[in-house]
Amino acid sequence: MCPSVPLPSPCPPGILFPYSSPQLWGRAALQPPVLLPTQRRTFSNNKILVELDTSSGVATMKFKSPPVNSLSLDFLTEFCISLEKLENDRACRALIITSAIPRIFSSGLDIMEMFGKSTEHYAEFWRAVQEMWLRLYGSSMVTVAAINGSSPAGGCLIALSCDYRIMVENPKYVIGLNEAQLGIVAPFWFKDTFVNTVGHRVAERSLQLGLLHPVTEAHQIGLVDEVVPEEKLQEKAAAVVAQWLALPDHARQLTKSMMRKAVLDHMLAHREEDIQNFVKFISKDSIQKSLSMYMEMLKKKKS
Ligand SMILES: CCCCCCCCCC/C=C\CC(=O)SCCNC(=O)CCNC(=O)[C@H](O)C(C)(C)COP(=O)(O)OP(=O)(O)OC[C@H]1O[C@@H](n2cnc3c(N)ncnc32)[C@H](O)[C@@H]1OP(=O)(O)O
Which portions of this protein are annotated as coiled-coil regions (predicted)? Predict the structure, then answer.
């Protein structure tokens, strides 16, 4: 089958036809088929650092928003811009997402964005959360979450939206959709993304109890695909990416799209309604009180 990129015609003499080599399938196949020295392109903002190795087509994205990589409106905006840049870059075929903050992958949605703000702000914030998920879950790149710390709620959603999850083995790290513990509810597309990863029964129990799973348990239920020691994480992520990139991009991408289309389409069809539901829900006094108590609890835990 032909890739969806235009074929060079005629094939230049003296070189292998680029599409015959699995390593050259896909967007990077348009590069001239000569051995190039490793080339790195870096771009950064104050929340995220991205390094693209143009010879392998693999980008590494590091969250670097202290103290806990919470997903504020600014963070989500920078995240979406970075994803868009990589998606539109023909030299990029894969993305590894990890954290530069010790012990934390991401603490999830920034609770302060959902507390004591205007309805307009809630709507803008929620649209940004949706946008992040649409871009990541619908990405045509190979995406691997290299989870080097705890990853509750929205942080877990980022990991779930990737194609593969590798987590560092550490008894202190947890991951899961713990919204119920905060007195809030994971929206249907969080739930669908979770169900597509761990299956209905496991998701139902985990969501209702708002469980944060220790790493070994997360592995057992299929929430993470592999567990590795910290020092092996990047090496493992690179090996997984290489395995996935060995396939023709168009076949992998069409398969990914087939598997995820129903969930993405469902959300797109109900996007505005979902924003209205969020604004109505989060503006309730009882929900604001729950969030306030949760933040208090976090602060007390420290003292
Ligand atoms: C009918 C249905 C309609 C649909 C309605 C939809 C409803 C909404 C759905 C929302 C979906 C997703 C929600 C979320 O993602 S909510 C966020 C959930 N996250 C958590 O529960 C994590 C909370 N944090 C922690 O457990 C810990 O902080 C940590 C991440 C394990 C790190 O622990 P630590 O000891 O290293 O650091 P700590 O001292 O606790 O924190 C440092 C400071 O950071 C603040 N902070 C932590 N997490 C958040 C956060 N998510 N948002 C904002 N701020 C956060 C913490 O308060 C500390 O601040 P300070 O130093 O005391 O000022």
Answer: none
Which residue type, as a one-letter code, is found at position 44? Answer: S
Taking a C-beta distance cutoff of 8 angstroms, is the pair 211, 176 a contact?
yes
**What's residue 85's pLDDT?**
97
183 φ/ψ sector (left φ>0, alpha ψ -120 to 50, else beta): left
Domain count, the chain: 1
Confidence (pLDDT) at 302: 74
Rounded average pLDDT over 17-30: 37
User: What residue numbers bound the domain in which 152 lies?
Assistant: 18-24+32-230+249-302
**Token pair recorded at residue 70:** 């919470």
Is 61:50 a contact under the CB 8 Å cutoff?
yes
Average pLDDT over residues 227-247: 98
Which residue has tokens 């129990």? 205
> For the chain, what percent of residues have pLDDT higher than 90?
86
Tokens 């309805």, residue?
119
102 pLDDT higher than 70: yes
54 lines ligand 1 (CB under 6 A): no
In a domain, 240, yes or no: no
Q: Look up residue 257 and give its two tokens.
A: 């799209």
Dihedral sign (CA 32, 35, 37, 43) = positive
CA of 184 to the centre of ligand 1 (A): 13
At position 292, the amino acid (one-letter code) is: S
Task: Please give the ipTM for the structure prediction.
Answer: 0.98
Q: Write down the catalytic residue from 154, 155, 176, 210.
A: 154
Q: What is the pTM of this model?
A: 0.90
